[in-house]
């Protein structure tokens, strides 16, 4: 099989994967290899000593949530004495935004690719402000996590259990026609999600005030659907992974210290990493570029699957991130066609006359042209617990794609 | 009677406006009576049902795309469904955004698919691979870059020829296609003179002069300076000649080059002879064999080439010659009694017969090894000292010539033989009384052979010139009265070459609105825009940022 054929297979599998949101379950019950003392995190694998503020904070928060530790000091000493194990979410069919920290007792979305049969998991979105995914672990943060697990999670689990599930690919396709790009802007998608889930929740939640609380929580959070969307992108890119000879990127992820990628034809555990960059963007009042942490989160799985920054042409409302004019948004997407293998069959963009989104990053094209993927991202404060400080644009370091080319040449004896 | 077929696409979301357009396009297909394309919500199913477009067997969920076609036959319905993907992906326009500058040829081609030319002016070491990519996309190439290796040039041109595409260059400084100047080009009137130029400034000088004389240029096709080398073998020049020959907008062709290799020149002239329109040839520094041979006019300077071309625009060309067409792949043999006649004929045929040998050669490398044995095309001066030992001059004694004539005619590879018959006082009193019967016998045996007779003399000569001519014609030979005429005739016959085994370049390439992708010098792009040509500029950078190790790995990862 030629590289072209391999890539064709990989990208077709990515597009034909059909992610259905099937349910919500306890991480320890569904995530492969999940253990009580295991903390999953975003990005490529990393040890505690090299973790950035937000990831450390989220780890402490998860330990408090799990009851593994009573306070910050105890948590840190447990970690330092080696009682806690860490691994990348991606090694466990899981993805999480920002710190991506996922522990055994957390409820997670279950998304199944009904075309190829693989599954992926992602935690529940906490909304804005002081939240675990940005490294916050105060009492209110933990309290909210418990409410999400016990009330929201239970409602979602029961609601979804009584349905055929929600087709996330169709939801993304529709949201792209409503001004979303699927990563930084999920306003339309979240409302579509609310539309689909509300009648289901109403059937299972009997107490009106709880019902109101749950629906308001989902509806108020314009990122509600981000986690199922990420899990959907994960099943798509996983379906494209492991195709012998393929040069298509199947993972892009950051842990707040390193940016890592994996490539379809280069195996599961082989990450190509380099120091992550600091996103450039717009900041909430009171914050500046100085406050920004290095790039963090698994949400780059959206760009890997052909949406997010790659579908910028669909999201004129957020063009300020890329320079200001709708033309800049079009140009952002046009640039990504240069480094991708194909055009998406299902995700189309009205502003480009319904052209499919650029899909399937080809490491050959990235290195040949020196054009790295464009990523739309939230920006975390570099200190644990402060939260989101802005949003903007970042690109992975070119070096990791060059490493991948060299590794490819070695593996295939070129 | 109608048949209804349907297709369900799981989880494929499309906006209803897109679906209505698809529905309209499907309904317009042959044999289709009605079509319904909807997201299969309950309301939409109901709508289809009301319109008798919902077969009972349809089992769908609201997230599914449901496509139903009702047609006059099952076949029409199935065909219509087979068109769905194409109709969905069809775009009204390519959405050219002048604002966006692509970085790769691939992206540029997607952005401006109607572009038929790619201008390449990147540094030489990268130029061949960019040109190769352009050919792979089916585009003609204007290759301005120099320092492209000879091997690359040959490979590119061979690939292009296989695909019916042109590679102008490398090191092609100028061209004018459909009124648009490429590279360095002068602003000249459009007209009916087409140019094939292996010299950039030569092309500029001729086109400018044509303009100054009130004429105009249809197209000026550059070939690059090495095209007429023996190694490249004028691949582009031949293609360009062919293209201009077929172009109804071109009435006269001008061919300009620095000195080509003689082999290449011969073939090119032979091809020009077949253009069926006048061709003005100026091979700088190459001796012109005549002012005019058949369709070909030889110029002695760039400005004269322009002068002749402009004059020819309104003239009609007439050619002398017989009807019989000998095999152009056979050999020519000239058996002369007159040394100067042999020499002039040899000179005149330099451009059209190659290789050609003689016992009285003009150039040393054309010396016949053994005067008694002809090879390839040969011209023999039988009055040469070698043959004269113990003999009378062939103008007096036909014996030697008759023996040589029979010898040549016995060679099946020989297709044409020329004899001169020089009359006058002192010559043989009645040469054709001996020659004509031999000619007649030979031609009876070999019907594929042509024998030409060049008769020199006057009506007052003692041999009765009319009688001599009549006898020769009665013996089925073709009679000429001057070297110029006979040379023209031979040249035309031997330039009737086979039609090319390569695909012809589509004439559209010249006549379509010129649309280009520019890779390299931005000034070329700006110049195209100033001429109101549609074009996009590629922000080209060396592959892998110039890292040779990575670039060589990438080169091995092309497929």
TrEMBL record, chain A:
Give the Gene3D superfamilies listed for this entry.
Answer: conserved protein of unknown function from Enterococcus faecalis V583, Enterococcus faecalis V583 domain, v583 domain like
InterPro entries with a match to the protein in the record: AllG-like, OXTCase_su_AllG_h-dom
Q: Which domain of life is it from?
A: Bacteria
List the protein's name: DUF1116 domain-containing protein
Automatic annotation (TrEMBL), chain B:
Q: What's an example GO cellular component term for this entry?
A: succinate-CoA ligase complex (ADP-forming)
Please list the residue ranges annotated as the ATP-citrate synthase/succinyl-CoA ligase C-terminal domain: 335-484
Pfam families attached to this UniProt entry: Ligase_CoA, Succ_CoA_lig
Q: Which GO molecular-function terms appear in the entry?
A: succinate-CoA ligase (ADP-forming) activity; succinate-CoA ligase (GDP-forming) activity
Looking at the record, the residues that make up the Succinyl-CoA synthetase-like flavodoxin domain are 190-297
**InterPro entries on file:** NAD(P)-bd_dom_sf, SUCC_ACL_C, Succ_CoA_lig_flav_dom, Succinyl-CoA_synth-like
Q: Which GO terms describe its biological process?
A: tricarboxylic acid cycle
Top-rank taxon of the source lineage equals Bacteria
Q: Which SUPFAM superfamilies match?
A: NAD(P)-binding Rossmann-fold domains (SSF51735), Succinyl-CoA synthetase domains (SSF52210)
- The name this protein carries in UniProt is Acyl-CoA synthetase FdrA
């Amino acid at each position: 099989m030629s590289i072209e054929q391999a890539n064709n297979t990989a990208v077709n599998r990515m597009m034909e994967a059909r992610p259905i949101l099937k349910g919500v379950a306890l991480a320890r019950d569904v995530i492969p290899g999940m253990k009580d003392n295991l903390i999953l995190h975003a990005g490529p694998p990393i040890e505690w000593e090299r973790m950035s503020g937000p990831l450390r904070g989220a780890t402490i928060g998860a330990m408090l949530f799990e009851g593994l530790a009573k306070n910050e000091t105890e948590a840190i000493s447990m970690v330092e004495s080696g009682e806690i194990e860490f691994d990348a979410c991606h090694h466990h069919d899981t993805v999480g935004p920002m710190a991506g920290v996922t522990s055994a007792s957390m409820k997670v979305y279950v998304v199944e690719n009904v075309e190829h049969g693989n599954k992926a998991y992602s935690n529940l979105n906490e909304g804005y402000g002081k939240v675990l995914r940005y490294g916050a672990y105060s009492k209110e943060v933990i309290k909210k996590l418990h409410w999400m697990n016990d009330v929201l999670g239970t409602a979602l689990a029961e609601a979804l259990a009584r349905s055929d599930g929600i087709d996330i690919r169709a939801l993304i396709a529709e949201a792209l026609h409503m001004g979303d790009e699927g990563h930084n802007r999920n306003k339309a998608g979240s409302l579509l999600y609310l539309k689909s889930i509300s009648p289901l929740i109403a059937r299972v939640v009997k107490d009106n005030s709880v019902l109101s609380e749950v629906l308001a929580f989902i509806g108020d959070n314009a990122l509600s659907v981000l986690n199922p969307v990420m899990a959907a992108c994960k099943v798509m890119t996983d379906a494209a992974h492991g195709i012998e000879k393929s040069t298509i990127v199947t993972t892009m992820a950051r842990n707040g210290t390193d940016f890592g990628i994996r490539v379809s034809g280069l195996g599961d555990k082989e990450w190509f990493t380099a120091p992550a960059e600091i996103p450039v963007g717009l900041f909430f009042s009171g914050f500046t570029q100085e406050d920004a942490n290095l790039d963090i989160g698994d949400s780059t799985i959206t760009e890997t699957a052909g949406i997010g920054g790659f579908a910028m042409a669909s999201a004129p409302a957020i063009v300020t991130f890329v320079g200001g004019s709708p033309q800049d948004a079009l140009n952002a997407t046009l640039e990504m066609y240069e480094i991708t293998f194909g055009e998406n069959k299902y995700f189309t963009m009205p502003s480009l006359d319904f052209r499919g989104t650029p899909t399937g990053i080809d490491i050959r094209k990235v290195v040949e042209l020196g054009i790295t993927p464009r990523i739309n991202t939230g920006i975390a404060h570099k200190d644990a617990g402060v939260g989101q400080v802005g949003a903007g644009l970042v690109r992975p370091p070119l070096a990791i794609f060059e490493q991948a080319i060299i590794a490819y040449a070695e593996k295939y004896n070129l | 009677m109608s048949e209804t077929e349907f297709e369900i696409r799981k989880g494929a979301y499309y906006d209803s406006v897109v679906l209505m357009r698809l529905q309209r396009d499907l309904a317009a297909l042959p044999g289709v009576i009605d079509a319904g394309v909807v997201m299969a919500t309950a309301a939409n199913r109901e709508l289809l049902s009301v319109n008798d477009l919902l077969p009972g067997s349809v089992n769908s969920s609201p997230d599914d795309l449901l496509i139903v076609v009702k047609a006059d036959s099952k076949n029409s319905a199935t065909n219509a469904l087979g068109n769905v993907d194409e109709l969905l992906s069809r775009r009204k326009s390519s959405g050219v955004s002048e604002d966006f500058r692509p970085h790769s040829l691939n992206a540029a081609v997607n952005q401006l698919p109607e572009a038929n030319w790619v201008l390449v002016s990147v540094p030489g070491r990268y130029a061949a691979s960019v040109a190769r990519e352009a050919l792979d996309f089916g585009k003609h190439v204007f290759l301005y870059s120099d320092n492209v290796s000879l091997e690359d040039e040959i490979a590119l041109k061979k690939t292009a020829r296989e695909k019916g595409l042109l590679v102008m260059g490398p090191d092609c400084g100028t061209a004018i296609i459909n009124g648009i100047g490429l590279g360095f080009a002068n602003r000249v009137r459009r007209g009916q003179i087409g140019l094939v130029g292996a010299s950039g400034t030569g092309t500029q000088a001729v086109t400018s002069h044509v303009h100054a004389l009130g004429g105009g240029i249809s197209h000026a096709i550059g070939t690059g300076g090495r095209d007429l080398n023996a190694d490249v073998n004028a691949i582009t020049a031949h293609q360009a000649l062919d293209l201009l020959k077929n172009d109804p907008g071109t009435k006269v062709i001008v061919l300009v080059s620095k000195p080509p290799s003689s082999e290449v020149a011969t073939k090119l002239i032979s091809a020009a002879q077949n253009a069926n329109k006048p061709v003005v040839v100026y091979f700088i520094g190459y001796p012109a064999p005549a002012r005019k041979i058949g369709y070909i006019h030889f110029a002695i300077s760039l400005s004269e080439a322009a002068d002749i071309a402009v004059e020819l625009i309104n003239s009609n060309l007439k050619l002398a010659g017989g009807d019989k067409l000998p095999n152009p792949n056979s050999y020519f043999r000239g058996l002369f009694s007159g040394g100067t006649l042999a020499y002039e004929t040899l000179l005149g045929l330099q451009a059209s017969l190659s290789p050609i040998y003689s016992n009285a050669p003009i150039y040393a490398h054309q010396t016949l090894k053994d005067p008694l044995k002809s090879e390839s095309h040969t011209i023999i001066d039988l009055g040469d000292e070698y043959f004269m030992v113990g003999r009378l001059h062939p103008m007096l004694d036909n014996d030697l010539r008759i023996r040589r004539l029979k010898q040549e005619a016995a060679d099946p590879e020989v297709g044409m033989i020329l004899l001169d018959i020089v009359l006058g006082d002192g010559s043989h009193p009645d040469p054709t009384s001996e020659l004509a019967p031999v000619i007649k016998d030979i031609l009876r045996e070999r019907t594929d052979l042509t024998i030409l007779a060049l008769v020199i003399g006057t009506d007052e000569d003692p041999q009765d010139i009319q009688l001599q001519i009549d006898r020769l014609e009665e013996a089925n030979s073709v009679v000429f009265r001057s070297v110029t005429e006979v040379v023209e005739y031979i040249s035309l016959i031997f330039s009737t070459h086979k039609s090319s085994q390569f695909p012809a370049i589509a004439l559209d390439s010249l006549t379509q609105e010129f649309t280009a992708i520019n890779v390299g010098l931005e000034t070329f792009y700006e110049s195209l825009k100033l001429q109101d040509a549609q074009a996009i500029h590629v922000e080209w950078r060396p592959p892998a940022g110039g890292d040779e190790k990575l670039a060589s790995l990438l080169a091995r990862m092309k497929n």
